[in-house]
Write a structure and sequence with these properties.
Blueprint lengths: L3 E5 L3 E7 L14 E7 L1 H11 L3 E9 L3 H9 L3 E8 L5 E7 L5 E6 L8 H8 L7 E5 L5 H10 L3 E5 L17 E5 H8 L5 H8 L4 E5 L5 E4 L4 E4 L12 H14 L4 H15 L16
């Protein structure tokens, strides 16, 4: 039987503007194209979990303007019954400029993602029990409270510390079961530019660590074991949501009782497919496509 996975995560509407160059102070610039996409690290990871076949529940908050995000979750088979709709707030969103070279700059607005209440946390966690998995990212408020309450209930806490900022180090990271992060985030947390994995192990000796290394692959480490997985060679066109795809597929495999090695291999295949496709949600593969 599959373990239940609760993703307490962010949901955003992404507004993507194609521009000749990034707008400068005092400048008014016409965009050549505007597209709207479902996004947010939480939503991306829930979609990856669902497409990987996990028994996933998404908790969070949107405004009335974000019902498309709820529909996207449900279409992919994620349970949205713990998603709250705020009538007095806008959905979180991102305003993204993409220039002619493909570079982007982003303004992020937290919106309803920053309206999580402790009452919502308590009510949601009442439906989960010891041994279930909870996945968290750093795009919600009340993260410290969620971690503490989830730990008290005996949930296995998986944390993707992204976006990585000073708030991460204020969290009770010693309660986290598994940390999933990339090299840049590892450097930010440890202050080390070399031997990041060793530094993470020294800092969090009881933790399971998954460090993604981009084109070099990924590595798992705990107190006693170290497992490396090579990356797949593909022609990458867009790395958006590759990390979220990896996270979702890894946890889906773990929730089925797969070994670390098998989970890494599945996650690596899924992420390799994702980078060959444009966009976030559209790039996340279904398990049968692997």
């Amino acid at each position: 039987m599959k373990t239940k996975v609760l993703n307490f995560g962010s949901l955003n509407m992404d507004h993507v503007y194609q521009v000749q160059h990034f707008v400068s102070p005092g400048e008014t610039l016409s965009s050549t194209k505007l597209q709207h996409f479902c996004g947010g690290k939480g939503l991306n990871q829930s979609i990856a979990l669902a497409r990987a076949g996990a028994n996933v529940y998404h908790a969070g908050a949107i405004g009335i303007d974000g019902l498309r995000l709820k529909k996207q979750l449900e279409e992919d088979g994620a349970d949205s019954s713990f998603l709250q709709i705020r009538e007095d707030l806008e959905t979180g969103h991102a305003i993204i400029q993409v220039d002619e070279t493909g570079q982007n700059c982003i303004i992020l607005y937290g919106g309803a993602n920053q309206s999580i209440t402790r009452n919502q946390v308590d009510e949601t966690l009442n439906h989960f029990e010891k041994g279930d998995i909870i996945l968290l990212q750093n795009e919600l408020n009340e993260l410290k409270y969620i971690i503490e309450k989830a730990y008290q209930k005996g949930l296995r806490i998986f944390l993707n510390p992204s976006p990585c900022d000073e708030k991460i180090m204020e969290l009770p990271l010693e309660l986290v079961d598994t940390l999933l992060l990339n090299e840049v985030e590892g450097e930010q947390i440890t202050g080390k530019k070399e031997q990041v994995l060793e530094a993470l192990k020294d800092k969090f000796p009881e933790m399971h660590i998954i460090l993604t290394l981009g084109s070099k692959g990924s590595v798992y480490a705990d107190k006693e074991n170290c497992v490396f997985c090579e990356a797949k060679k593909v022609n990458a066109v867009d790395t958006t949501a590759a990390g979220d795809t990896f996270t979702g597929y890894y946890i889906a495999a773990v929730s089925e009782g797969e070994s670390v090695k098998a989970a890494l291999e599945l996650a690596t295949k899924a992420a390799a497919v994702a980078v060959t496709r444009q966009g976030a949600v559209p790039s996340i593969p279904y398990r049968k496509q692997l």
